[in-house]
Automatic annotation (TrEMBL):
EC id: 4.98.1.1
Keywords: Cytoplasm, Heme biosynthesis, Iron, Lyase, Metal-binding, Porphyrin biosynthesis
Protein name: Ferrochelatase
SUPFAM superfamilies: Chelatase
Pathway field: Porphyrin-containing compound metabolism; protoheme biosynthesis; protoheme from protoporphyrin-IX: step 1/1
Compartments reported by the entry: Cytoplasm
Species classification: Bacteria, Pseudomonadati, Pseudomonadota, Alphaproteobacteria, Sphingomonadales
Organism of origin: Sphingobium tyrosinilyticum
UniProt enzyme class: lyase
Taxonomic superkingdom: Bacteria
Keyword Transferase: no
Similarity comment: Belongs to the ferrochelatase family.
Stored InterPro entries: Ferrochelatase, Ferrochelatase_AS, Ferrochelatase_C, Ferrochelatase_N
Length: 323
């Protein structure tokens, strides 16, 4: 029988925390029509002008603050997840990982898996909430790679798991564990999701509703309020709100002096969680009069995460494993 493969998909990250590498990464990322939905004739001059002239140096400085010895946190955490999942599923299933932008590329990893004999592949975008700018574009890139193959593997895709009891349980257990390790009891738990232009919601992207559903289910499981906000605004259009940075600045005035922020839409810690929330978010909250701030780590390759991915993968593979 054909070998079975699982390809974990994540967003992508620069090769190094320097302006040239960040420029290459941003050019590829922000040229994706699923991400910036402005006609290319208008958008490309803006991207290649003001954005790529100024943002790479600024972002490279931020990447330097969080860079690990082994590389970018997003890549390190995603690779570790793949290695641990491989150990859990055993030698009959081959687990690999790829990035939508940058390396390792989806095209390279998919053709490598096929060359290694994988005739059945589960494509697993590591985004709990479906978004065209993340899930759809990662799968588009897989289909584009498959389009160039004469002998294609059979394909399955992992559905969004925003309301899956296994995801909510993983988040709940990870949150309870991390809260118990803090030296304070937070007045409020904030769930900060990556933002999106508000227009994408009216156009039918289910992302916003799925973020709210995940937070509500987590709140029910924890038995306490989980307040939602959206981070990482980009560009001039109106984005989903409320904005995390604004909320963190106003919470102390409203009497919330101790806060814990979790980032459940990110499967792995990355620039957006480690720099924007854990560093800048903390500074802003404390400067606005807050006393205590904690960022709770993403699921990464924690025991809770590995239980979750094993459960999701086995559910998808069950028909294939039996035949
Ligand atoms: C988890 C879901 C994500 C959504 C939805 C998303 C939408 C989105 N992002 C940008 C612009 C940028 N995002 C950047 C970094 C970044 N974004 C996500 C995830 C989502 N993005 C991750 C995991 C990361 C971190 C990558 C890393 O290397 O650690 C950046 C780059 C950093 C910077 O310069 O600020 C940009 C730019 C848009 C425009 C968008 C939807 C329209
Ligand atoms: Fe982003
Ligand atoms: Fe950011």
């Amino acid at each position: 029988m054909d070998k079975i493969g699982i390809l974990l998909l994540n967003l992508g990250t620069p090769d190094a925390p320097d302006a040239a590498s960040v420029r290459r990464y941003l050019k590829e990322f922000l040229s994706d029509r699923r991400v910036v939905e402005i006609p290319q004739l208008i958008w490309q001059p803006i991207l290649r002008g003001p954005i790529l002239l100024t943002r790479p140096a600024k972002s490279a400085k931020a990447y330097k603050e969080v860079w690990l010895e082994e590389g970018s946190p997003l890549a390190v955490n995603t690779r570790e997840t793949a290695v641990k999942l491989q150990a859990l599923v055993g030698p009959d299933v081959s687990v690999d990982w790829a990035m939508r932008y940058g390396k390792p590329s989806i095209a390279d990893r998919l053709s490598e898996m096929v060359a290694a004999g994988c005739g059945r592949i589960l494509l697993a975008p590591l985004y709990p909430q479906y978004c065209a700018a993340t899930t759809a574009t990662a799968l588009d890139a897989c289909y584009a790679a498959l389009a160039g193959m004469r002998a294609q593997p059979a394909i399955r895709t992992l559905p969004p798991y925003f309301a899956d009891p296994a995801y909510i349980e993983a988040l709940c257990t990870s949150t309870v564990r991390q809260l118990a390790e803090l030296d304070f009891t937070p007045d409020l738990l904030v769930a900060s999701f990556h933002g999106m232009p508000e227009r994408t919601r009216t156009l039918g992207d289910p992302y916003y509703d799925q973020c709210l559903a995940s937070a509500r289910l987590l709140g029910n499981a924890l038995g306490r309020e989980v307040r939602v906000s959206f981070q990482s605004r980009f560009g001039r259009a109106k984005w989903l709100g409320p904005a995390t940075d604004e909320s963190l600045r106003t919470l102390p005035v409203k009497g919330v002096k101790k806060v814990a922020v979790l980032t459940p839409g990110f499967s792995a810690d990355c620039l957006e969680t480690l720099e924007e929330i854990a560093m800048r978010g903390r500074e802003e909250f404390l400067a606005a009069g807050g006393n205590k701030f904690a960022h709770l780590s993403c699921l990464n390759a924690s025991p809770e995460a590995m239980n979750l991915y094993r459960a999701l993968a086995i559910r998808e593979l069950v028909g294939w494993l039996e035949t």
